[in-house]
Amino acid sequence: VTSTFISDFRSIKPKFLLKQEQAIQSLVRLRLQLKLRPEGWDEQTIETRIRRFGLANSQIETRGTEISDYVESNNSIDSFFKNGQVPSLEERMEFFKKRTNEVMNEFYDAREITQPSDIVHVTCTGYTAPNAAQELAANWAKKSNTPITVTNAYHMGCFASLPALRIAGGITRTHGGRVDIVHQEICSLHFDPQTLDPEQIVVQSLFADGHIRYSISCDADTHGFEVLALREEILPETSELMSWIPNRTHFAMRLAREVPVKIKHALKPFLQKILASAQISQSPDEIIFAIHPGGPKIIEAVENELDLTAEQTIESHDILRAHGNMSSATLPHIWQKILANPKRVDGQVVVSLAFGPGLTLSGSVFRLIHSHGSGSAR
Amino acid sequence: VTSTFISDFRSIKPKFLLKQEQAIQSLVRLRLQLKLRPEGWDEQTIETRIRRFGLANSQIETRGTEISDYVESNNSIDSFFKNGQVPSLEERMEFFKKRTNEVMNEFYDAREITQPSDIVHVTCTGYTAPNAAQELAANWAKKSNTPITVTNAYHMGCFASLPALRIAGGITRTHGGRVDIVHQEICSLHFDPQTLDPEQIVVQSLFADGHIRYSISCDADTHGFEVLALREEILPETSELMSWIPNRTHFAMRLAREVPVKIKHALKPFLQKILASAQISQSPDEIIFAIHPGGPKIIEAVENELDLTAEQTIESHDILRAHGNMSSATLPHIWQKILANPKRVDGQVVVSLAFGPGLTLSGSVFRLIHSHGSGSAR
User: Which pLDDT belongs to residue B57?
Assistant: First the structure.
């Protein structure tokens, strides 16, 4: 089977940078401003509860958000929660459409960018048809005779970068060409202020927004990664522990406490199988690990279970600290960070691990290709 | 590039069969039963308007639905619109989850069915994570050491069977194995009774529910189709004409009158390009056409533009007449019908055409393989 390669990462920051203390304050403020505030929700009750269950800035320092309400205390002109009202799902989808179109245009605005054969559009936080990738393809069709083919990788949650690699890899193996994967996640669009449920307070102090683009091709002459293996497993009897379902106002998440424990137990055999299928002979302690920070305890649980050193997971911690959990956009940000780290050298193996509803345990094995013209060492 | 093959179609009928006259009556009745009925909506106004814009049974005779309210006039125990209330989006997603799980289990309940390596789950009418394919994979994981990998092909609309072939073809080319594609569309879940807009009356008298499963592999020794070409184009300046966006109660469709005209103009060059890429030498009048019946006028528009005979499109008319527009499940039902038609012989070329938001014009070229052991004639 022909190898596929990942390269040319470019991320675009959300409009607003939110410090974690500021985020905690805005979670309190948005509840106090609610037009239909539940009985008994006085300032002290709300603040106590948010501070008790919200993630402190020891793990997350900053997150990006597209929603001005999380950074500004006044009802500004572009306020989302107007007069304390909770927007309907259609208002959120409209917001998603507008902002993702802007970001998509920014991704393809650069003079040096050439036309991809395909775009795989990845999101679990906004569904419009047509979507931002289709709008871009329609515009591109005015000046090009070759169409851009758009494929959606939707509603798969945090691990969706790995199915996206499966889809994009299959496409470039079939007809060659450069398949761009574009992640657009606006998780903060779905934070519901009408709850003080501990699970939801964790979610609202953990998730964040992110946009990132990268390219897949069969071209070995690249600066990036060679994809050696992909694997996904769904763990039996865990389907109730995590879910993501659209409702009348937002997409609602269930993220149970038991998730890290369930995942932890499945890790060792999973790692063994994926390394075997990638035919890797390196010792595990020489491998770089890209771990999706699904919850505050996940990176730690993986490190403990697999006996990893801080050195092996440094980029995962860095991305969680600076960006929070950007759902499917998170792992690609970690990959971008690994490529930018001068300590990571050509030929090193990178194992990625991500988790989502199912519970799904998803992973990949890459080989780092650090210099142009080096090709594959395989 | 290795060829891929389609085989083993199995469809499962929705719970209720709805005659078109009965459907028209239920569209009237559900409006009369509305708890919050708009002013001026008396019986005569409603009936006149529904009969004026609803599709008569000259083109569609029956459609399948999972919702009992469309066939029964009483408020039965499993009534969806309880006491004339309009269900919220979360109630509809819950309904979707329950019913798709049942149907998925039925698809994989047969003793003779072996485990696929992958399932590509295709829908644009219900998004839950985990989904029915993931629940099935989780159950299967209890008795098998090899996981079933699930990939979503979501929110692409009526033409999604063709991206699903692109995804599944890439997967089986990458690692072999049998990739099952499972379509589950419950369009009637999203009929909003709170409107008398002509466009919406057309939608509610056209769309229907459908479930179908088939398999993709690199195994030429099959009874089915060889995939020779796939192509997708997005037409510039048409993005406003068709849309599909979740709102607080349902997924809402925009389907403008101009769609058939816009599509019609793009057909000839599209057909020329896709036949060229499939390296087909047959005369166009020997080709079978599978045309997605996106609207009442689409099949006719395609026939006129491409000069097709009734013989060439008979299965498309049959499926529209007996099932309505089942969104992404429609083309696979037409393919199943072509395979079952004894007049269609080994080696015949089948061109499929489907349309969706973008506007996207999507197509495929297959070669029919009518007897086991015949392999590919290519």
Answer: 80
